[in-house]
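Structure catalogue
Derive tokens from sequence
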Amino acid sequence: MSWESAEDYRRVFPNSKLVYLPEAGHNLYQEQPDVMMGILREFLESGTGKLQGYEGRVPPEDYQGARAARKKNEHGHEIG
């Protein structure tokens, strides 16, 4: 997801929390199912109150953007 999209979600849903996960791609539920289930379980059990949200308005230093998560072939071209 682009950082701009994340900010759009925060504007539309002001009571939401942005959970930033370094090295996570678009399909967290497939790439890191244990992490996704932990976040979902915490939300369902306690709502957003206990979730550790990212409060910054600029991307974290290690944020690589939506394009960085895409796979590349041996020639460096994006695939998929």
